[in-house]
Write a structure and sequence with these properties.
The complex is a heterotrimer of chains A (215), B (386) and C (226). With 215 residues, chain A is α/β, with parallel strands linked by helices. Helices cover 20% and strands 33% of the residues of chain A. Chain A has 5 helices and 9 strands, in the order αββαββββββαβαα. Chain C contains 7 helices and 8 strands; from the N terminus they run H-E-H-E-E-E-E-H-E-E-H-E-H-H-H. Classes of the chains: A alpha/beta (215), B alpha+beta (386), C alpha+beta (226).
Chain lengths: 215, 386, 226
Amino acid sequence: METLEQIKKRIEAAVPGAKIDIVNNGSPSAQHSLKIDNEHARDVARFLRDDPALRFDFCSNVTGVDWLDRVIKKTVKTKQVVDGVEKDVDLTSEEKIPGYLEAVYHLFSIAHKHGPVIIRMQTGRANAQLSSLTPIWRSAELQEREIFDLYGIKFEGHPDLRRILMWDEFEDFPMRKDYRPPDDFEWEPTPHDDVLERAKQHYPARPTETELKPS
Amino acid sequence: MSATSSQELEQAPPRMSSRLEGELMEVSLGPQHPSTHGVFRMNVALEGEIVRKLKPVFGYLHRNHEQIGESAGYLQAMPYTDRLDYFCSMTNNWAYALSVEKLAGIEVPERAEYLRIILAELTRLQNHTSLLGFLLSDMGAWGTPLMYAFREREKILDLFESLSGARMMCDYMRFGGCRVDANDDWIAGAKKIVDLFPKFLDEFEDLILQNEIVIARTQHVGKLSPELAISAGITGPMLRASGVNYDIRKIDKYGFYPRFKFRVPLGDHGDTYDRLMMRALEMRESLSILQQAFAQIQPGPVMNPKVKIRAFKPPVGEAYGRIEAPKGELGFYLISDGSANPYRYRVRPPSFINLTILEDMCLGHTVADVMVILGSIDIVMGEVDR
Amino acid sequence: MIGAGIAKGMAVTLRNFVGSYLEEDRLTTVQYPEERNPLPENYRNFPILIFDGNDPHAGLRCVACKICEKECPPQCIYITKSEDKKPDYMGKPQFYPAVFDIDISVCMSCQICVEVCPFEAIKMDKEFELSKRERFNALLERKEQLAKSNEYYHHIHPVEAAQVDKNLAEAAAAAEAKKKAAAAATTAKASSVGDAVSVPGKPAASPTAQSLGSTSSPGVSPPAAN
């Protein structure tokens, strides 16, 4: 299989205007990924699927990732002259990355039996919207519905975008990192749990065994 | 699938009603139905007995498994993976352990790899056996084949119980190996069951394969073309029944599978009969792998001593690991931010994604065939709804 | 010929029907309450706490370190550490759990608490007939119900318990030897006693193995027959 750099160059030649970035993965798995932009996503995907050398005809895994606002601290060692003496000084710079939602696609090729190539698309957390790749790979149909359900990314061009696992009337997006579950839990028999303290506000006290017995 | 059909059904109120809508009658199949293999519901629009539209409805067993995985630590998520596909907890354990091992770069000792292969193939045997029983049960062979299948499955579950302590919720594998070692008695017992298994398979094939009713109910029912199967991400025996040669054991060469000689059975027509046969043929290959594994396995450690059990923290990064589970490609996608919990824990459930083309396969068939087609997909709701 | 396949299948059914009277591997069921299949050695159900000797309070191995509470996947263990110390079975003063509850409606029998316990204090029970008349409070197992003697542990897991006792005895012997060596060397400092002695097969050191007080160790001797 071609390297990611080669694939990136080929995509940029084939899809004019496409912005492709290689996202490095520091873990021992070394599965690096390609970040593609939303406007050209479907063209890039079609190229990846139809190019005779690549032929990524099998989109295995589609998933969302929620990244909250992050602050990345970078420490750079520089030499500075302080009071006429050269010293090593650590300069810390803080980079603030606003939160975003991400859709990650794992592509394999059944024709050439290679893979994976991972592509990812990013969108803001408010009014999240991405173009759907279901027209390219049918396997994204249910999985994009799941992302819509759990992360709240709207997929433009999806044939049937509805909630899938949660019920239709549900309003929040439970897989987002800032999701807080409601506290109307069912009564648990554990008297230690602080969950129970909150649940007690929703449920009346349960009658004890002696109260239940007919006198 | 056509986009219009889905929109039309979408406009129907989402309540359990069977009402006449032109010439189509809307029927809600499930969620409490013995043939839906759990709490699975399909909204079907029928013209007479012919299915014109079908919309699966998910989520009755949804417990947000992925969020549980993210709030629990790496080790703590392992027993939860047993509950995904509760028929095949051993392969679920392996897929999760494989992903974490990829993420953290952990080596697995040789004996542990052999034990994993033995357990995964035993899982495949019991999963396919019970599937054949369930499928015949769906077709109306009420009880008898299922009881024969469960009798054999129970012998394999007894093996799991004596090794891991539980029949179904095994929680057996750990990152960098397996929890406990199998002693010689266990290996001998497993070998005895594997030796006797072909006898049962012969008998089971006698029971069903030439049966005229089975043939009439399954051949040319629920055809799936290889192009659609690839595009829809179908994996496992369903994909191979459509004639696509794609077995992750051969492609990814994970574990010690390259050391084993086995063939990948392929179907010609992609109909329900092929999918049924595919399971029977795969079991024969699994038996061959098991015999080779019993011959090759050597004593040794089963756990990598460098791996910490408590406070396990993999390096920052991500990994996607997948194995050929009995139902298809089971993958785990993990993102680590260096803490004790995975930042993102994603399961790629094979039986969920295999349901993508349920409507395509069922259109034009009778409502009785829907159950047979659904049974041949081999779903487990614990994995579909997660 | 149509019907031949069905006839063949019926022959299999007949063979199984007749065979269930004659062959053992075709009749695998037992009449449950009267007849029982033996449980395998590794079978696990719900956790129990092991105590040495005869007194559940005095002999309890648990020192309320709360590791199992932290590592439990569904968070079903609740421990309150005692304020005072009691001597453990080797005489060393240790904390003990004032409250040790396991909510068995939440427990999923995963055995992770057993794996992480450095004191061999929590083990898995084999008792599976647990139905009770009471609906809620009986689901919460208190320390009194959880505490089981070492003899009981030997009864349900003979191989594993023998290994555990061997490990504990080795650790105690190692601690004893170290103590004697320290006593022999007159320059012994108090700090050397506090060093951890690694228990074979366990990553973490077991403070119970550090011998400070009495030399007799009732917990590691073979249990007396009741």
